[in-house]
Design a protein that fits this description.
Number of domains: 3
CATH topology of the largest domain: Butyryl-CoA Dehydrogenase, subunit A, domain 3
CATH architecture of the largest domain: Up-down Bundle
CATH superfamily of the largest domain: Butyryl-CoA Dehydrogenase, subunit A, domain 3
Structural class: alpha+beta
Length: about 400
């Protein structure tokens, strides 16, 4: 890929690599490498290190803590951060809540929320999906009724990621019943300490606690916490989902998985021959790496186009990145499990939480491979299923 970069870009990449080599606390780097969970306190520590450098939210407007980097520089930053086994800045804050407020919030909201979003003093959950409104998000039923200077909110949100840690939630609510179900939806920022909010854990197939149900029972939300105009949130949500789908490319993380596959396959032998020399594995690795390179080039092109557009523009081409990125991410997981075989099967919750060591002849990261495989089956569902992405591209990009 170096041939795609100018001399200035290569120098910029060297600057990134040097910073991540020196700035990432060793214990956090090790936990990321092993696939262990990062605690809220540890992630907040890393956010503050990045914020002090001015790099926690590189894609933001420089007036609110962004860097002013171009699309290529932002792509390189994200890749080098992940390749260095640095914790990824919390996406719900940096890639969703922050850009939402920058694009559609007022100056008072920006001054109040953005600095604390960068440092994770405000930890945001995403209140989108509901029991009967997942892929068909416009069917949401959580209702907000205006009562003086407040909205009174009643309803339920589902699959709310890390809401157990959140002190705020950016939330889609229905404020009117219109002819089109996409109309009458409003964005609210809800303080999670408000009376009437109940968070219940949902343990996922990997036996870990990532998502939750959130119940809202007569929750009073100040009108000043509404982002943008009442009833315009469907437009805002499409913009926000564009940002989320760009993140879904995950090219650098897939690269790291491929490196792990090669590492372990070189150490496992079948009839005296390293697994890495087996034709079935070499052909699957080659196909994966070729498609990943194509995804990287497409990602840079889409990011460059998005940067030239207005900041509140919905770009349907982000669906390509999310759809292909999720597919390759899952294929790398599957190949890793195929290579590990029984070595990747043990369920080790204590190791996943960083609470115990592991004595094994295989690399320590193999202990979390099966959990990550199960967790990442959802990659083709969140931010809109693959079927939804096909529909978006058929309508918006192909005109069908």
């Amino acid at each position: 890929m170096d041939s795609l970069f100018s001399r200035e870009e290569l120098a910029f990449r060297d600057e990134l690599r040097e910073f991540f080599r020196s700035a990432v606390p060793g214990r956090l780097r090790r936990k990321v490498e092993l696939g262990q969970n990062i605690s809220p306190a540890e992630l907040r520590e890393w956010h503050r290190i990045l914020d002090a450098k001015g790099w926690v939210a590189p894609a933001w407007d420089p007036a609110w803590g962004g860097t002013g980097w171009n699309a290529m520089q932002i792509h390189m930053y994200r890749e080098e951060l992940q390749m260095a086994h640095a914790p990824t800045p919390f996406a719900l804050n940096i890639s969703l809540a922050g850009p939402l407020i920058i694009a559609f919030g007022n100056d008072k909201q920006k001054a109040r929320f953005l600095p604390k979003i960068r440092t994770l003093d405000y930890w945001f959950a995403q209140g989108f999906s509901e029991p009967e409104a997942g892929s068909d998000l416009a069917s949401l039923r959580t209702q907000a009724v205006r009562d003086g200077d407040c909205y009174v909110v009643n309803g339920q949100k589902a699959w709310t990621t890390l809401a157990q840690h959140a002190n705020w939630m950016f939330t889609l609510v229905r404020t009117a019943s219109e002819a089109r179900k996409q109309d009458g939806i409003t964005y609210l920022l809800i303080d999670m300490s408000t009376p009437g909010i109940t968070v219940r854990p949902v343990v996922s197939i990997d036996r870990d606690h990532h998502v939750n149900e959130v119940f809202l029972d007569n929750v009073r939300v100040p009108v000043e916490n509404r982002v943008g105009e009442e009833g315009r949130a469907w437009y805002y949500a499409k913009y926000l989902l564009t940002q989320e789908r760009v993140i879904g490319a995950r090219a650098a993380i897939t690269k790291l998985k491929i490196a792990k596959i090669k590492n372990i396959a070189a150490r496992i032998t079948v009839a005296g021959v390293p697994l890495l020399r087996q034709s079935w594995l070499r052909s699957r690795l080659a196909a994966l790496e070729v498609e990943l390179t194509a995804l990287e080039i497409t990602t840079m092109r889409v990011l460059s186009e998005m940067q030239r557009q207005a900041t509140d523009t919905f770009d349907p081409k982000s669906s390509i990145l999310k759809m292909k990125g999720s597919e390759l991410y899952q294929r790398a997981d599957e190949l890793l499990i195929d290579v590990l075989g029984p070595l990747g099967l043990p369920y080790t919750p204590g190791f996943l939480q960083g609470e115990q060591s592991l004595e094994s002849l295989v690399p320590e990261w193999a202990a979390t491979a099966s959990q990550k495989y199960f967790l990442n089956r959802a990659a083709t569902i969140y931010a809109g299923t693959t079927e939804v992405q096909h529909n978006i591209l058929a309508k918006a990009a192909l005109g069908l």
